[in-house]
Specification:
214 residues, alpha+beta, 60s Ribosomal Protein L30, Chain: A, six-stranded mixed β-sheet, globular
């Protein structure tokens, strides 16, 4: 989000590998209704794994796992490079994900009290036994207002704020959450670059225990 007033709102939708089910704003039962714990959990559950007859991981699996293992340690000490963000985005595009509406104060990465219920639902879902052993990408996104540099920094701080909340409140292991900011690089609504649904935090299940077992 940029330095221009935008109400600090990040809209909600649910994405599932192999297709996208949009549940933005009033497409929920109520305009102010956001994904429940069970909806988040179901959206992030990994697809059914089809095991290779040889039992040997594919080259794509090896590349994905190597990238994730590398970034799990690096993201704790520095921001990701542009190349690393692009590689993560490529991995994440076909993985189960959920976009959440998270409220921040204007020009701030501080989570507001009204954002807490949504983050609590997220934390409970990520703590569910069905998602144990998974590694998640916490991606921050803004709309197109403001400079690229400003939006990049703000999206990184907001993604990190969500990660810090999950680690602090739910004791989720920090190395299972990779935070990354994408600024205004990946607009959800390209027809309206300033639309609210472009301002979001996306949680993606990068790797599950089923994937690791392949």
């Amino acid at each position: 989000m940029s330095k221009y007033p935008q109400n600090g709102v990040l809209r909600a939708s649910i994405g599932v590998a192999g297709g996208l089910l949009l549940l933005v704003g009033c497409n929920f039962a109520g305009a102010a209704e956001r994904p429940s714990e069970s909806e988040i959990l179901n959206a992030l559950k990994p697809p059914v794994v089809v095991r290779s007859l040889t039992g040997v991981p594919s080259s794509d699996d090896v590349k994905r796992r190597t990238l994730i293992d590398n970034l799990r340690s690096k993201s704790r000490t520095r921001s990701l490079t542009g190349d690393e963000r692009e590689q993560l985005a490529d991995v994440a595009k076909d993985r189960p994900s959920v976009n959440l509406e998270i409220y921040f104060d204007f020009n701030s990465a501080t989570i507001t009290p009204r954002a807490v219920p949504d983050l609590v639902n997220l934390g409970r879902a990520l703590s569910n036994e069905d998602l144990k052993g998974s590694v998640f990408l916490v991606g921050g996104y803004t709309d197109a207002k403001g400079s690229g540099e400003y939006n990049q920094g703000l999206s990184e701080r907001r993604a990190q704020a969500v990660k810090d909340f999950l680690v602090g409140r739910f004791k989720i292991a920090g190395d299972t959450l990779v935070s990354a900011g994408y600024g205004k690089e990946q607009l959800k609504n390209t027809a309206d670059p300033f639309a609210a649904e472009n301002r979001r935090v996306q949680i993606t299940n990068l790797e599950s225990k089923q994937d690791a077992a392949k």
